[in-house]
Amino acid sequence: MLSYFLAVLAACANAAASVLQRRASRDLPGEDSLRPQLILHLLRRPVWFAGFLCVILGFVLQAAALATGSLSVVQPILVVELPATLLLASWVFHTRLHRREWLSAVGMTGGLAALLYFLSPAPGNGEEAGWEAWTVGVGVNLSFVVATVEWGRRQPPALPGGASRRAAAFGVAAGCQFGLTAAFMKGAMSREEEGFSAVFAAWQLYAMVAAGILAMFLLQSALHAGNLLAAQPGLTLSDPLVAILWGSLAFAEHVRGGWYVVPAVAGGALIAVSALVLARSPLLKGEAALRDAARVPSAEQQRAGRPPVR
């Protein structure tokens, strides 16, 4: 139960990070996506640092959860991040939640409960995969991330829906990269029983740092490329999916088969459909209007020759 509680807290910390970092980046030039200039601009904004601290807190809570629970259990719980993000964003961006958003949040929660109950993920036998499996898995993971980023980069942000597709693609890529980061984190934390020196001696710890930096860069690009709810569903759903695959590949974690797969798939489908409904929420228009209003000076400001307030 402790790993469940810590995973929920990690999801809430990640939700706060997403909203704060989206607020910090929403009025930056669109061409800054996937460029180092984006990070340089964000470093000048205190609200971004608050979001970054939430990211660090989320990582610490996630590591603690993985130290006591399996990868296939902890990561799916992180989909709670999406409804938590929606609730927090409605407060920060002064938008109102309607029946559509509430039903989607309930659908995601119910789908998650069904997925975990019927699959009943269980830890493996304690044996970790060899370097061959790690090499192939990392190669496939990174290849998919690169392909997704390239597809998103080719979406013209000036065309209708282009910015949302771009943000969604970068969000999926970031989620896949965070899934890989979680696999490295689990590999390092699995040596905790041998002492902290064993954790710091594990190669996965340093691979986790490198993977996490890339994941953070992709996350900032996703949050900057389009609306928050365009980036968040792909980010939230791809992370646990990739982590479950890594749990089976690298740590021999197993789930129940047979007829249990049918309701588990139904639960996963309910999560995906609910996320897609959230992605089409009218709140997207509300945030876009708010962003445009922040960019356009008022009539009084125009007469006074003053720039708009950021």
UniProtKB/TrEMBL annotation:
Domain of life of the native organism: Bacteria
Protein name: DMT family transporter
Keyword Endoplasmic reticulum: no
UniProt keyword annotation of Transmembrane present: yes
Protein keywords: Membrane, Transmembrane, Transmembrane helix
Organism of provenance: Streptomyces ochraceiscleroticus
Transmembrane segments: 47-67, 102-119, 163-185, 205-223, 235-252, 258-279
Record InterPro entries: EmrE-like
